[in-house]
Known about the structure:
Elements: H1 20-23, E1 31-32, E2 35-36, H2 42-49, E3 66-70, E4 78-85, E5 88-94, H3 102-109, E6 114-118, E7 130-136, E8 141-147, H4 152-159, E9 172-176, E10 184-185
Antiparallel strand pairs: 1-2, 3-4, 4-5, 5-9, 6-7, 6-10, 7-8, 8-9
Amino acid sequence: FSGLWPSPTPTLSPELMDHSWLTGIPCSPPCWYGLEIGKTTPEEAQEKINQLSFIEANVTKWDNISVPLYCKGQNYYYCAELRFDDNILSEIGIFPNYEITLKDVIDEIGPPDSLSIGPLSSGGLFVTDCCVRFYWIDRQLEMLYMDSDSYKVCKQVENTGYKPMPSIVIHQIWIWDIYEKIGIPWSGFAEEK
Length: 193
């Protein structure tokens, strides 16, 4: 999974970092820069994406159901991905090019409704990777912590009664039509050790 999300770059200029999903400016999830799940067409999305200062619009290919959007100044790492179903936007993926913790997110938008944990891979006897997912139903947000090399964080979350550490880093944000509660209800943070 290396390269799917950028490593934080402390020297990146602020105009190349997208915080809109967190601040609600110019619109709050489930909207992202005027793109709306279940409403926006690829043509409308392309028009809006071409106006974003942090996206390399000239390298974006709009001939697919999954459209990767590359970050300016980031050696072609994805900043975001748009997914379409029957020519209507169905999912928006956002891959922060800066470090943001779960505590930072909760301080800004409040706690998630629920969380789930599991491996990234599809199985086998020895699980060696981890994914912790956090869900905000009203905002139609799903946020992910992912580690392709270790199940350690997933084990910690399990062992603390499904309470993650505040310092867990968010690697991906997905906006999609979450219509029912998923996972285990949020019950707060574990204590940092």
